Amino acid sequence: MLTELVDLPGGTFRMGSTSFYPEEAPIHTVTVAPFAIERHPVTNAQFAEFVAATGYVTVAEQQIDPALYPGADPADLVPGGLVFRPTTGPVDLRNWRQWWEWVPGAHWRQPFGPDSDIADKADHPVVQVAYTDAAAYARWAGRRLPTEAEWEFAARAGSTTVYAWGDDPQPNGRLMANTWQGKFPYRNDGALGWVGTSPVDTFPRNAFGLTDMIGNVWEWTTTEYFGHHRLDQPPKGCCTPSGRPDPTINQTLKGGSHLCAPEYCHRYRPAARSPQSQDSATTHIGFRCVADPSEAEHR
């Protein structure tokens, strides 16, 4: 069953930030047309329905073409995905390779490798999905992936504050999103008891009634990533990518994830953004779909 769509009126808003990371600048005025967006990220159960109906094989499960990765170690050119592994203690946060590991055999059914599964995570966001995997699901669903502007408009939900719920990350001590609790990357105390992803709709919805727009998993958008907002030309993007992903192109991710911590990745904010190559499949990236008004009428 597809996720319920929430109709949004569209409108004009101030996109970006100059208070945190340089790639979020400059702040600029953007207008988005009316659209509908899924209330929560696509879950494991929903992605499984798609795979059962189509026989789709994700990027992480496919053989890798060595020509796309010149100079790479042949031992790494096997199907798999990036898996987060906590360190044993404090480390230099400038080197992400200390907590990310390439794991052969990791894919959406086995997010952490062959010894893992999703048996008890049907209502968690699907992960280990590359950009083209998300786009393939969206086409099957009769929907599409959002642009960065659409995504940020939906996440802000009319707010102009640092977080969609205000300027306090935890108002009155209330945890508003699934983000890292503890000392990154070695001690995770859990967000409302969840270490890693959490079931969708566990945390408060925003003013538009959307859940997990912040935290839980990063989400793919169709906007190609640049190191800052481009005002000299419209953002590049493609709503219905197909075929093999291009490892030389970075897409813009939005929303932050359960791995975001203030001392390392203070990106659990609507304005935050991050680059990710189209072929990347990891344990903290998922997606949700949107629909144009004419398409939403047929939901």
UniProtKB/TrEMBL annotation:
Domain Sulfatase-modifying factor enzyme-like: 2-290
Organism whose genome encodes this protein: Mycobacterium bourgelatii
Molecular function in Gene Ontology: formylglycine-generating oxidase activity
InterPro entries: CTDL_fold (IPR016187), Sulfatase_Mod_Factor_Kinase (IPR051043), SUMF_dom (IPR005532), SUMF_sf (IPR042095)
Record-given protein name: Sulfatase-modifying factor enzyme-like domain-containing protein
